Amino acid sequence: MDDRSGIRLNRRTFVGASLALGGAVASAPGVAGCEGAEHGHDESQTAVVRVQINGQRREFTVDNRMSLLDMLRERAGLPGTKKGCDQGACGACTVLVNDRRINSCLTLAVMHDGARVTTIEGVAGDHGLHPLQQAFIDEDAFQCGYCTPGQIVSGIGCIAEGHAREPAEIRQWMSGNLCRCGAYTNIVRAVAKAAGTR
Ligand code: FES
Ligand code: FES
Q: Residues 92-116: what's their mean pLDDT?
């Protein structure tokens, strides 16, 4: 690529020059978010997220690109929510946000400022296990257990949505949660038991 002054630019040098120009603009007086940019500490790339996790108010300063899953596991110290695929295909990372189940690997932490988040660590009550946790034990609904936190949180959501009236419906509405061990039959039985539909 040639410019008019005759300086030869290939794609790499052109991108580098563009970034340098961007840095110069960002360093200009009155341009927000410039401090520390040269040193990789651009505060414009971080945000404060205030959330209520399992009933506790928490606050984190996170990189804008951090997923909710990574914030829970790496910043909040809650590793119960599992990272299976990290791309929305397995459901191992399922949590409840404002009582709705979502794949926490597919959503940015900064999108949930002010939200209520429930993870597997928060589903048991003061008097013992959540009924669905107990049903998983009673029905032998897991083998390796890796998918189990996501299955249980998703099952709680499935029941709350009214999608656990019969086995076929449970299978459909739990289909986003994969179990590589193939414990599906017992998982469906456990969800139905907790829902009181069997
Ligand atoms: Fe999120 Fe698999 S880890 S869907
Ligand atoms: Fe092993 Fe679900 S119990 S993947």
A: 98
